[in-house]
Write a structure and sequence with these properties.
Blueprint: H1 31-42, H2 44-56, H3 70-101, H4 110-124, H5 128-165, H6 182-214, H7 218-221, H8 235-247, E1 252-255, E2 266-267, E3 271-276, H9 294-306, H10 317-321, E4 331-339, H11 348-353, H12 356-366, E5 372-381, E6 386-397, E7 400-410, H13 415-418, H14 420-428, H15 432-466, H16 481-484, H17 492-520, H18 525-535
Parallel strand pairs: 1-4
Antiparallel strand pairs: 2-7, 3-7, 4-5, 5-6, 6-7
């Protein structure tokens, strides 16, 4: 297996210190990343959003990629689109040639098939009135199809009877009198040509599942160097892939001010606490409290967090090494947030990444608004399908200490993406009759789908050619491709693990701050009591306008996900605009 270096890996453990626990899987090889790649072949809408955010909008810095490799997802999205464009052209070509061979009779089916596509769209809206309209439209379309086929069949038989009575010869669509014999031609050629179109539709579906079952199989996916999607040598793709790999795991996070935590998932009960620093009475008259700095408090938190990687005693080193708790893969590092809007060009971000040490030293004590330092604690559960990231910020000012804790969660990847392997195996092992039935059922929608595919491809190319994204001022990420593929909720097991990860990490954070204050000679009782009350379900940070933050501690899931899968914190801005 080829080792893939990650730029700017933190010196304090990065993806995990093997001596203190177990290293998590490399992001480019994670199961969650494999599901995201499979999703680009299964969901055209998701694929278009990936390409638009990462490829069309070249000026946008990529969101942090927690537990996956965004460049690999983009590579498969581009490969899937190229394949789908080819198949769409093939489907439309089959319709065109079929219309010529049948003297235009096949084109008669275009309107009914488009109406069936409209009926499918209405049913997918999940609006009762539209679903009723969808049923009515289907009934009308099927009546129309039966009528058209009956007319074509009756006309063909009638014309063949006339020819037989006149002693006419066999009719072919290429005969000089073919234009006068449309009914007979349609009667003989329409079923054959329609079967050819159905075959093309079936082959397209088979190609998708063959790709998932082979190129994206678990064993094949582990060979990153041998991934065929990575072999594309387009100049634009190579340039963008290099930028993504340099940005997505860097400790310098270049953000958009409207969504600074883009990529980390949904906020999950963030909280903050401020306490007055008061000297302890038991210090004695000859000792005064030691001033505490932000850096000193962070240094006391980190060792307590790193101890979570070590399993409890299990009788033998072998038994301890076999413990599968994901806390053994806990990642503790530091990051600095900087707004991307002040950069002259996107490539300048890589220069800023090299300034991390200086930026970190300045940000940890300044308590600024735009530049912010965080201790970042991450656990990737369920093969990186459940990612819990806790951002911790400590600030002392004017005899007060402020502690900010901002947990975020990436919920599991969509069920349809997660089940891609099983669906591919089911389809490929299905009988020929089953595959034919599937293709026949989906042929009516193939015409509209192919036109839409070619239209989206043309629109994407047009935005690249005319919108000037390559020379635009850099922006922070508007959306994360991992967020776009997340479910709205998780199973009870997922939520139980989420609570366990979060409570364990928060307890260690509070414990570290308490130890730091006590050692420096400051009171800790008020802080410890209030921190437990807040962290266990007291009062959380509230948003001024319907954010995803929970309030009151009674909810295990967020009730508003307006920062996911369709918009951002800017109130529904679209990433597809120019």
């Amino acid at each position: 297996m080829t080792e893939i270096p990650i730029p700017h890996q933190p010196a304090d453990g990065g993806w995990g210190d093997p001596s203190a626990g177990r290293s998590p899987v490399h992001p480019s090889l994670s199961e969650a990343g494999r599901f995201l790649c499979a999703g680009t072949y299964l969901d055209a809408g998701y694929r278009d959003r990936v390409i638009d955010e990462l490829y069309v909008h070249e000026e946008r810095i990529v969101a942090p990629s927690y537990g996956y490799d965004a460049s690999r997802v983009l590579a498969h999205a581009l490969r899937a689109r190229r394949a789908e464009l080819g198949w769409a052209a093939g489907v439309l070509g089959a319709w065109f040639v079929g219309s010529l061979l049948t003297g235009g009779a096949l084109a008669v089916l275009v309107v009914p098939f488009l109406l069936l596509s409209l009926a499918d769209w209405l049913r997918a809206r999940n609006v009762p009135a539209l679903r009723v309209l969808s049923v009515a439209l289907r009934i009308y379309v099927w009546w129309l199809l039966v009528t058209l086929l009956a007319v074509l069949g009756f006309g063909g038989f009638a014309l063949l009877g006339v020819l037989d009575g006149m002693g006419g010869s066999a009719v072919t669509p290429f005969s000089p009198s073919g234009a006068d014999l449309t009914g007979a031609v349609a009667f003989w050629w329409l079923p054959v040509v329609f079967a050819a179109v159905v075959t093309v539709v079936g082959l397209q579906r088979g190609h998708v599942f063959r790709t998932i079952a082979t190129d994206l199989a678990e064993g094949r996916y582990a060979d990153h160097a041998g991934d065929p999607a990575e072999s594309f040598d387009g100049t634009r793709f190579q340039r963008i892939r290099q930028r993504i790999r340099a940005e997505q795991h860097a400790p310098m996070i270049m953000y958009d001010v409207n969504d600074p935590f883009c990529g980390a998932g949904d906020p999950y009960r963030p909280w903050q606490l401020s306490v007055e620093l008061r000297p302890r009475e038991d210090l004695g008259p000859d000792r005064k409290p030691t001033p505490v700095t932000n850096a000193h408090i962070v240094q006391r938190i980190v060792p307590l967090l790193e101890r979570l990687r070590v399993p409890s005693p299990h009788g033998s080193p072998e038994a301890a090494a076999a413990v599968g708790d994901r806390m053994r893969e806990l990642v503790v590092d530091e990051c600095v947030f900087l707004p991307a809007s002040g950069l002259p060009h996107r490539d300048t971000a890589q220069v800023v990444h090299g300034q991390y040490a200086g930026q970190r030293a300045a940000a940890i004590e300044e308590g600024g608004e735009r530049r912010r330092h965080f201790l970042r604690v991450r656990v990737g559960g369920w093969d990186e399908n459940l990612v819990v990231t806790v951002f911790v910020r400590v600030h002392t000012q004017g005899g007060m200490m402020m502690l900010e804790v901002a947990p975020h969660v990436l919920l599991p990847v969509r069920t349809a993406f997660h089940n891609a392997d099983a669906d591919a195996q089911r389809y490929r092992n299905n009988s020929g009759f089953g595959k034919a039935v599937w293709a026949l059922r989906n042929t009516p929608g193939s015409l509209a789908a192919s036109v839409a595919t070619l239209g989206r491809g043309l629109a994407s190319w047009w935005r690249i050619a005319t919108a000037g994204h390559g020379g635009a001022r850099p922006e922070g990420p508007w959306v994360s491709v991992r967020d776009l593929a997340s479910q709205d909720n998780g199973s009870l097991f997922h939520l139980m693990d989420l609570d366990r990860f979060l409570k364990t990490i928060q307890d260690r954070v509070v414990g570290g701050v308490t130890v730091a204050l006590h050692e420096a000679g400051w009171h800790t009782e008020e802080f410890a009591q209030r921190a437990v009350n807040v962290a266990e379900g007291g009062v959380f940070i509230q948003s001024v306008n319907g954010s995803a933050f929970s309030v009151g501690g009674s909810n295990n899931t967020n009730t508003n996900t307006n920062t996911k899968r369709g918009g951002s914190a800017q109130g529904g801005r679209s990433s597809g605009g120019n």
